[in-house]
Every structure is written in structure tokens, then in C-alpha cells.
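Reopening this ticket.

The earlier resolution said the output was attached, but the attachment link was broken on my side. Pasting everything inline this time so it's all in one place.
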Amino acid sequence: MKKVVVLTGAGMSAESGILTFRDMGGWWQNYRIEEVASPQAWETNRQMVLDFYNIRRKQLYEVEPNAGHYALVELEKKYDVQIVTQNVDDLHERAGSSDVLHLHGELKKVRSERNPDLVYTLDGWELKEGDLAEDGAQLRPHIVWFGESVPMIDMAVRIVKLADILIVIGTSLQVYPAAGLIGYAPSYCRKYYIDPNAAEAALPGVVSVADKATSGTRRVVDELLNRKDD
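Inline output:
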């Protein structure tokens, strides 16, 4: 069974209604993303950070996986599929994907600010000042913030190195270190890049599918499921 590795970014979730930071409107647009998503913000204005992620978490409970998420699940009928996502939502899991690696953390999880190994699934959407881990430390969002290392990047590299087929969906390929993952795919690996701006990227050895995530993923999944040589 051939191995398909799928790298997904914000464009994968956008069609489910997941708002980006820029789309959230209101008083959030008075802040740069670094001001609510960094260790410095957590130290200087903890309540603002808590409020920001509570709003995002609440919204996640109000949306559903889209056709692109479900199309990737279909690939598991024929391939060994592993998803590596930059997204912090759980839409891949809710659609039914069985193997998902989150590079930048998970919105529905929290962890001790003192011990990153103490990770919990939050009950509900609201994290408050005074909510403590078992070590007595304040719980913080289980998110990789600006200025923090990406603990899962080495595992992601190992996964991509084993890919027979690589599908990149809904990412600008501008956010590092995740953007560099495509360079670790083996020389024999077939590569697809699904994004409305994919044609402009013109990546060597990559099939560009200039389409949004839902319809573009459907096209590539149908092609792979109908291939006789896989």
C-alpha cells in the first residue's frame, strides 16, 4: 500500500468557516498577531490572550468539516494516509481521518505553562485565569506561539521522507519551518499543490491545481482513487 502524506494549511479550514485572525474583526484588528500569540503576550496581557483563544475555540464548536476533509478520508480505502496539518482545529479528526499530526498545536487542548508534557483536552471552550494543571501551574493554550520551537517538525520531516505521494493543500508555503517540508519528499514522490494561487507558485516537479481546497482536493482524490498503477 502506497503512502500518501497530506500537508494542510489555513485554506483547508477556511471553507468550513474558520475565521483567520484578520477576519475576526472587532477590536482584534487593533492588534498584530504577535500581540496575542506569543510568550511575551502571555506574560504581559494574559487575559487578552485567553479571550482571543476562547473566541477561536467557541467558534470551532460552531463549524463542521467540509467536503475537502471528507475527501481525504476516502483515500484511506486505497492508501496509507498520514495528514500533517498547520491548523489547530480538529476538523480532520471529526471528518474521520485516522492519522493526523498537528504541527502548531491543538485549539481544544491546553497545557501547563510550566511543563509542556502536561497536556489536557479542555472541557468546553473557555479557559480562565486560575485554571490549573496538576503541577499547580496555570493552564495555557496548547498552541505553538511566535518565538517558540515547533516540537513536531522533526516527526513531520520523517513522515514526508516516506511519502510516495505528497499533497499540499491550502497553504501559501510561506510559513517556516512547515513550508520547507515539501523539500524532504523523495525524488520518486508524486507531488500535488492545491491552492487558488498554485499556478503562480510553479514549483518544479509539482502538479499545480489552482483551485480552492474542497473542489481541488476532490479532483486529486478522484484521480488517485482511479489510478490503476497504485
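Reporter confirms the inline version is readable. The chain has two domains: 3-17+65-104+149-226, 21-62+112-143. The mean pLDDT is 92.
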